[in-house]
Amino acid sequence: MLSYEDARALVFQKIKPLGKCTRPLNESQGVALSEDILAPHGIPSFDNSGVDGYAVQSQDIAQASAENSVLLENQGYIAAGDSVNQKMHSGQCMQIATGAPLPKGANSIVMKEDVEIEGSKIRFTQSIQEKENVRYLGEDIPKGDTIIKSGTVIGPAQIATLATFGFSQVPVHKVPKVSIVSTGSELIDIVGKPTDGQIRESNRFMLAGMVRQEYCKILKITMVPDLPEVLHEAFEEALKADVTLICGGMSIGEKDFAKHLLNELGVEEIFWKIKFKPGKPLFFGTRGKTIVFGLPGNPASSYVLFEEFVRPALRKMMGRKVLEESMVKATLEIPITKTYGRLHFMRGLLHEENGEFRVRPLKFQGSHSIGSLVSSNALIRVEANSPCIPAGNKVFVRPLRNEII
Ligand code: AMP
Ligand code: MG
Question: Which of 56, 90, 109, 114 could serve as 133's disulfide partner, Cβ 3.0–4.6 Å?
Answer without folding.
Answer: 109
